[in-house]
Amino acid sequence: MDLSLFFAGTAGSVPTARRGLPALLIRRGGDRLLFDCGEGTQRQLVRTVGLPEIDAVFLTHFHLDHWLGLPGMLKSFELRDREKPLTLFGPRGTTELLATMRRVLGRLRYPFAIHELDAGDAVEFDGYEVAAFNVRHRGSAFGYALVEDARPGRFDAELATALGVPFGPDFGRLQRGETVNGVSPEQVIGPDRPGRKIVVSGDTAPCEMVRVAAHEADVLVHEATFLHEDLARAQETGHSTARQAAELAADAQVRLLALTHLSTRYAARDIREEARAVFARTEVPRDFDTVEVPLPEKGEPELIRFDPEGAEAAR
Ligand SMILES: [Zn+2]
Ligand SMILES: [Zn+2]
């Protein structure tokens, strides 16, 4: 099952020529989940991977840079006669936020639902869930953890045969938990293997909840709004420095740290270098880069730079 992150917008607060406002598209199999939807998100998608029939949007918090792209995108879905249902998830207040935009949106003709979450709530999808947790920002704000269901342990076919279970339907019976010819499933099937985990911090100061949620995550997408020389400013505004994000990633033993929510005041290179000095497996994606997340036994999560010509050709 393919699992990847597409960085549709990697700036914080103010867009630049190269970086749009926060939006992260997570693709798993045929599912498309969007985390935040900054101003301009639909165009960021249209000019690269195309605007997909997103299944759900998750808002981290209500600062303008994280949701202003939503009304336009919701309307575009209507104009192209979308029929598929769309659910918007967010902290308490999401319904009210959308109500204030009713005059702009009018009525949407496709099924559109708003579902407010409390910290600790998890939304179930086919084969995984997305759980909300509190982070430390100004006002209430969420991070999200996408966690796949555990996978069954590895079946040792050679051992099963050696123990006297013939190849064929009996293998299936063992895998369904039956004892066959005196051989129990535990003898030939390893322990459950954890699914993959992606954690998105949203805007936050360094936060224990993120560290706990991100424990051994495959990918942690963490904000790095400041360099550590501006720590005081980060503390005032409820944001993190690149070094703090890297320290947290190291503590949480994640497989890959992707830094985002970049400020216009720094070069991405400086953000990356500061973080890598603490945690080597750090990337600072540009807009439209992808991180592919293979199953652990198949390799490490990897940043793939955006190829404009490839995107054009794929059209
Ligand atoms: Zn922000
Ligand atoms: Zn914010």
Folded structure, characterized:
The strands form two sheets. An eight-stranded mixed sheet has the order 6-5-4-3-2-1-14-15. Helix 10 (242-252) runs parallel beside helix 11 (268-276). 42% of the residues are buried. The chain has 315 residues and is of the alpha/beta class. The chain is built from twelve helices and 15 strands. The longest helix has 11 residues, at 242-252. Strand 12 (256-260), helix 11 (268-276) and strand 13 (282-283) form a beta-alpha-beta unit. One zinc ion binds at residues 12-13, 22, 63, 65-66, 203, 261. One zinc ion binds at residues 61, 63, 137, 203.
Question: What is the secondary structure topology, with strand pairs?
Answer:
Blueprint: E1 3-9, E2 23-28, E3 31-35, H1 41-46, E4 56-58, H2 70-79, E5 86-90, H3 94-99, H4 102-105, E6 112-116, E7 122-125, E8 128-134, E9 142-148, H5 157-162, H6 169-175, H7 185-188, E10 197-200, H8 208-213, E11 219-223, H9 231-237, H10 242-252, E12 256-260, H11 268-276, E13 282-283, E14 290-292, E15 302-304, H12 308-313
Parallel strand pairs: 3-4, 4-5, 5-6, 10-11, 11-12, 12-13
Antiparallel strand pairs: 1-2, 1-14, 2-3, 7-8, 8-9, 9-10, 14-15
Helix pairs in contact: 10-11
The structure holds zinc ion (ZN) (2 copies).
One zinc ion binds next to loops.
Beta-strand fraction estimate: 15-25%
Mean pLDDT: 95
Count of individual helical segments: 12
Report on the biggest sheet. 8 strands, mixed
Overall 3D shape: globular
Quick structural summary:
Helices cover 26% and strands 23% of the residues. The protein has 315 residues and is an alpha/beta fold.
